[in-house]
Amino acid sequence: MTLEVSTDVTRIDVDQVHRWLSEDAYWALGRPRDVVERAIAGSLNLGAYLDGRQVGYARVVTDHATFAWLCDVYVDPDARGAGVGRALLTAVSAELTSAGVRRAMLATADAHALYREFGFEPLGETQKWMIRSFEA
Q1: What pLDDT sits at residue 84?
Q2: Which of 22, 46, 51, 134 has the fewest CB atoms within 10 Å, i.e. is most exposed?
Q3: How far apart are alpha carbons 106 and 45 in whole angstroms?
Protein backbone atom coordinates (compact mmCIF):
# COMPACT_ATOMS: atom_id res chain seq x y z
CA MET A 1 0.00 0.00 0.00
CA THR A 2 1.24 3.45 -0.91
CA LEU A 3 0.43 6.47 1.26
CA GLU A 4 0.84 9.87 -0.36
CA VAL A 5 0.11 13.40 0.87
CA SER A 6 -0.55 16.13 -1.66
CA THR A 7 -1.30 19.85 -1.59
CA ASP A 8 -2.95 19.65 -5.02
CA VAL A 9 -6.39 21.09 -4.29
CA THR A 10 -7.80 19.60 -7.50
CA ARG A 11 -7.36 16.13 -5.96
CA ILE A 12 -9.49 16.92 -2.91
CA ASP A 13 -12.72 14.94 -2.90
CA VAL A 14 -14.95 17.78 -1.70
CA ASP A 15 -17.98 15.48 -1.31
CA GLN A 16 -15.98 13.16 0.95
CA VAL A 17 -14.44 15.98 2.98
CA HIS A 18 -17.88 17.53 3.47
CA ARG A 19 -19.28 14.18 4.67
CA TRP A 20 -16.40 13.61 7.06
CA LEU A 21 -16.61 17.07 8.58
CA SER A 22 -20.37 17.62 8.64
CA GLU A 23 -21.32 14.10 9.78
CA ASP A 24 -18.44 12.83 11.93
CA ALA A 25 -16.08 15.61 13.07
CA TYR A 26 -17.22 16.91 16.48
CA TRP A 27 -15.98 20.42 15.69
CA ALA A 28 -17.81 20.72 12.36
CA LEU A 29 -21.05 18.76 12.68
CA GLY A 30 -23.66 20.17 10.34
CA ARG A 31 -21.22 22.41 8.47
CA PRO A 32 -22.89 23.31 5.16
CA ARG A 33 -21.22 22.23 1.93
CA ASP A 34 -20.88 25.80 0.68
CA VAL A 35 -18.91 26.66 3.83
CA VAL A 36 -16.60 23.67 3.24
CA GLU A 37 -16.09 24.82 -0.36
CA ARG A 38 -15.26 28.40 0.70
CA ALA A 39 -12.91 27.14 3.42
CA ILE A 40 -11.07 24.96 0.91
CA ALA A 41 -10.82 27.88 -1.54
CA GLY A 42 -9.22 30.15 1.05
CA SER A 43 -6.79 27.69 2.64
CA LEU A 44 -3.77 25.47 2.16
CA ASN A 45 -5.24 21.98 1.81
CA LEU A 46 -3.57 18.62 2.21
CA GLY A 47 -5.09 15.36 1.14
CA ALA A 48 -3.81 11.95 2.20
CA TYR A 49 -4.23 9.17 -0.34
CA LEU A 50 -3.84 5.46 0.22
CA ASP A 51 -3.39 3.71 -3.11
CA GLY A 52 -4.99 6.75 -4.76
CA ARG A 53 -8.10 6.86 -2.53
CA GLN A 54 -8.47 9.89 -0.26
CA VAL A 55 -8.30 8.76 3.37
CA GLY A 56 -7.40 11.99 5.15
CA TYR A 57 -7.55 15.74 5.03
CA ALA A 58 -5.99 18.72 6.76
CA ARG A 59 -6.59 22.42 6.23
CA VAL A 60 -4.27 25.27 7.16
CA VAL A 61 -5.34 28.90 7.30
CA THR A 62 -2.14 30.88 6.84
CA ASP A 63 -0.54 34.05 5.54
CA HIS A 64 2.35 31.85 4.23
CA ALA A 65 4.79 34.12 6.08
CA THR A 66 4.37 34.35 9.84
CA PHE A 67 1.33 32.48 11.18
CA ALA A 68 -0.83 29.42 10.56
CA TRP A 69 -3.91 27.84 12.09
CA LEU A 70 -4.13 24.09 11.58
CA CYS A 71 -7.73 22.91 11.41
CA ASP A 72 -10.07 20.27 10.03
CA VAL A 73 -7.57 17.44 10.43
CA TYR A 74 -9.50 14.26 9.73
CA VAL A 75 -8.60 10.64 9.01
CA ASP A 76 -11.16 8.18 7.65
CA PRO A 77 -12.09 5.69 10.40
CA ASP A 78 -11.07 2.76 8.16
CA ALA A 79 -7.57 4.24 7.77
CA ARG A 80 -6.89 5.17 11.39
CA GLY A 81 -3.83 3.54 12.90
CA ALA A 82 -2.08 3.37 9.51
CA GLY A 83 0.05 6.52 9.96
CA VAL A 84 -2.22 8.81 7.95
CA GLY A 85 -2.44 11.49 10.64
CA ARG A 86 1.33 11.47 11.13
CA ALA A 87 1.87 11.71 7.36
CA LEU A 88 -0.48 14.70 7.17
CA LEU A 89 1.26 16.45 10.08
CA THR A 90 4.71 15.74 8.62
CA ALA A 91 3.60 17.36 5.36
CA VAL A 92 2.00 20.31 7.19
CA SER A 93 5.24 20.87 9.12
CA ALA A 94 7.28 20.78 5.91
CA GLU A 95 4.94 23.23 4.15
CA LEU A 96 4.99 25.70 7.04
CA THR A 97 8.74 25.43 7.53
CA SER A 98 9.43 26.04 3.83
CA ALA A 99 7.14 29.10 3.93
CA GLY A 100 9.04 30.50 6.90
CA VAL A 101 6.00 30.48 9.18
CA ARG A 102 7.09 31.24 12.75
CA ARG A 103 4.04 30.12 14.74
CA ALA A 104 1.15 27.72 14.28
CA MET A 105 -1.88 27.09 16.47
CA LEU A 106 -4.66 24.53 16.64
CA ALA A 107 -7.52 23.50 18.87
CA THR A 108 -8.24 19.90 19.82
CA ALA A 109 -10.30 18.05 22.38
CA ASP A 110 -8.77 14.64 21.89
CA ALA A 111 -5.51 14.43 19.91
CA HIS A 112 -3.00 16.15 22.18
CA ALA A 113 -0.51 13.28 22.16
CA LEU A 114 -0.29 13.23 18.37
CA TYR A 115 0.19 16.98 18.11
CA ARG A 116 2.86 16.93 20.84
CA GLU A 117 4.88 14.59 18.61
CA PHE A 118 5.04 17.47 16.14
CA GLY A 119 6.11 20.15 18.59
CA PHE A 120 2.75 21.57 19.64
CA GLU A 121 2.37 22.42 23.32
CA PRO A 122 -0.76 23.35 25.29
CA LEU A 123 -1.42 27.07 25.47
CA GLY A 124 -2.90 28.25 28.74
CA GLU A 125 -4.89 26.26 31.22
CA THR A 126 -7.72 25.03 28.99
CA GLN A 127 -5.48 22.48 27.24
CA LYS A 128 -7.73 22.80 24.17
CA TRP A 129 -5.49 25.27 22.35
CA MET A 130 -1.99 24.25 21.31
CA ILE A 131 0.85 26.25 19.76
CA ARG A 132 4.10 25.48 17.98
CA SER A 133 7.00 27.79 17.31
CA PHE A 134 9.21 27.05 14.30
CA GLU A 135 12.93 27.70 14.10
CA ALA A 136 13.87 31.00 12.52
Answers
A1: 97
A2: 51
A3: 15
